Amino acid sequence: EDQVTQSPEALRLQEGESSSLNCSYTVSGLRGLFWYRQDPGKGPEFLFTLYSAGEEKEKERLKATLTKKESFLHITAPKPEDSATYLCAGRLNRDDKIIFGKGTRLHILP
Amino acid sequence: GAGVSQSPSNKVTEKGKDVELRCDPISGHTALYWYRQSLGQGLEFLIYFQGNSAPDKSGLPSDRFSAERTGGSVSTLTIQRTEQRDSAMYRCASSERGRRYEQYFGPGTRLTVT
């Protein structure tokens, strides 16, 4: 069964403490890996699209990378405003729908 | 410009009743998606509309669920004979042609079936 699995489920960091969130996928013929940010009570907000192993995308303190089996969202020197749930999703084969993981709840302590 | 809007924001209904949830996508966006999000769960795909093409209904959990999109814009998700397990946040998203996976989500409708 095609799946997208995120770890850890929750992560608490001190402000300035860098870390990485993991997204592993067992999707045959992955045709795109996407990262979203979701703030409490709001809909997800698009962050990045990755298509090829080795590809990297950056936005402010976030950098997303992709290998053949997983993706990482690296957060460098995070600030409290980076606290949110980060979702990754994978596109299957030639389907037009994407499968979301359950997310990582990130909490940055001031 | 205006984002994706959904109404109502909250809906409480009794088991067995029908409900309609509405989504207004961003103007000009050709793709529209419905998802369901339960506490502690990821976003579960329900249905996808792209322009005038036949919708992808493969995520609808039962025949009690249906959706339509009129005039390529507004969409309505209908749940008939609601059950308690239908309680969840229902989210709509839209995207523009050529950037289909850069989805813009609405604020959601919280459905509670009592």
Describe the fold and architecture.
- Chain A has one domain (3-109): Immunoglobulin-like.
- Helices cover 0% and strands 56% of the residues of chain A.
- Chain A has strands at residues 3-7, 10-14, 19-26, 33-38, 45-50, 56-59, 62-66, 70-75, 84-91, 98-100, 104-109.
- In chain A, strands 2, 4, 5, 9, 10 and 11 form a six-stranded mixed β-sheet that branches.
- The mean pLDDT of chain B is 92.
- The chains are: A mainly beta (110), B mainly beta (114).
- The A-B interface holds A 4, 32, 34, 41-46, 49, 87, 89, 91, 95-103 and B 4, 31, 33, 35, 40-45, 48, 50, 56, 58-59, 91, 93, 100-108.
Q: Using DSSP, what is the number of strands of chain B?
A: 10
CATH first level of chain A: which class? Mainly Beta
Q: How would you sum up the major sheet of chain A?
A: 6 strands, mixed
Beta-strand fraction estimate of chain A: over 45%
Q: How far apart are the first and last residues' alpha carbons of chain A, in Å?
A: 40 Å
Report the structural category of chain B.
mainly beta
Oligomer: heterodimer
**Strand segment tally of chain A:** 11
What would the average pLDDT of chain A be, to the nearest integer? 91
Radius of gyration over C-alpha positions of chain A, nearest whole angstrom: 13 Å
Largest sheet of chain B: 6 strands, mixed
* Rg of chain B computed from alpha carbons, rounded to a whole number of angstroms: 13 Å
Helical residue percent band of chain B: under 10%
SSE order of chain B, as H and E? EEEEEEEEEE
Greatest chain-chain contact? A-B, 22 and 26 residues
User: How would the global form of chain B be characterised?
Assistant: globular
